[in-house]
Structure formats: C-alpha cells, structure tokens
Amino acid sequence: MSVIKFRQSMIAIVLLISAVCVGCGTSQEGPELAPVTGVVMLDDEPLVNADVYFLPIKNTPGIGGQGRTREAGKFDINYYRGGQGLPAGDYRVAVSYRLMPDGTPVPEGDTTPPIESPASESLPPRYSSQEQSELTATVAAGQPIELKLTTKK
Hints:
By secondary structure, the protein is of the alpha+beta class.
C-alpha cells in the first residue's frame, strides 16, 4: 500500500471515529424541577425585596437556587443551573434582607460582593446565613412554602 493511500485511509478512519464520537457526549439534562413558590413573613408582615436561597440537604439532588421576594412577600425560586423550580426534597433556606445606609433594600441584580457593599444584613444569622440558617423546607410539586420569621427570640 502506498504512503498516500495509507494516509487517506487513516484520515478516513479518524473522520469516521470523530463523527461517531460527536454523538457520544453526555446528555445530562439535570434533575427534574418542581415549581417553588411561597411567601416570607417577618413579624406577621410581608417581607419585600429579600433574597431567598434554597440549599439542598440530606440526599436531595441538585445545587439549589434562589429568588427575591416581591409584593406581599411572594417569591419564586430559580434553579442555579437554569430553569424555574428545584428538585423535590429537603432544603436549608436562608433569607437575606440587606439594607443600604439610607434604609433602602439592596437593588435587585446588584452584584457587588457583600464585603465591598455599604449594605448591611438586617436579619440575624439564624435566618440570613447560608451556613447557619435554622430555616428548612421540603419542596414538593404544588406545595407553596411559607417562611415565618420573627425578630423576637
């Protein structure tokens, strides 16, 4: 076999293998997401413009998600990897209500790292800390979540 024919054969084999491998990629779509809606109340009043974080615990799949409360303290959670909702399961929940020096909430979409921001957290770590929060919730399809926070101990 001549060098040219050998080279052409090798190129053909490489192209064939490459074409087959293109279809072999992982097709992880991620876990099935259930819509997550709810309300945050602070001392029986709706908490508006607070950030709500859901962090999976126990054997709950996925990486969690977040949302922001709006009128009447209502929220929807978006999965961190895209999509609305979260995988069904158990979560630690953190609610952060950071206020600027003038008393207004941090604007939605503000990407300033907390350490560089003039805003300060107004809720205690038992609610606001993603590591220390005592709040938990179980996500199940069609089950809204009510988070009742209190400033009283």
